[in-house]
Amino acid sequence: QVQLVESGGGLVQTGGSLRLTCKASGNIARLGAVEWHRQAPGRQRELVARISRTGKSTYADDVQDRFVISRDNDEKTAFLEMNNLKPEDTGVYYCRATLWTPTADYYWGQGTNVTVAS
Predict the structure, then answer these.
(1) In terms of DSSP bridges, do strands 10-13 and 112-117 run parallel, antiparallel, or are they unpaired?
(2) What backbone phi and psi angles, to 5 degrees, belong to 54?
(3) Which of 16, 79, 98, 106 could form a disulfide with 32 if both were Cys (CB 3.0 to 4.6 A apart)?
(4) How far apart are CA 68 and CA 50, in angstroms?
(5) Distance, CA of 5 to CA of 17 (rounded, Å)
């Protein structure tokens, strides 16, 4: 069964850091572009960061210079390093990735909760 599993969420104080992990498993030929999305309480899901298969990254304006997205193609895993966290970063963080199985399809993880206390 092909799936994405996120981990690393939790409760942190303002100014703290967390590192989220998104791991693909199953019969996967390769991991394509990976995105991290955030859904804050009562709000729509929004794109936070994206990394291409070749490592090119882009960020939402409000996380630029605080978050870093990275990947390990051999391990079919992506990461989101979140620094200087703010209460407005609170939400459920979802990983979305293109997986070749061998055809290319989008997959979503189940999400991991991040709570930043003020």
Answers:
(1) parallel
(2) -90, 0
(3) 98
(4) 10
(5) 20
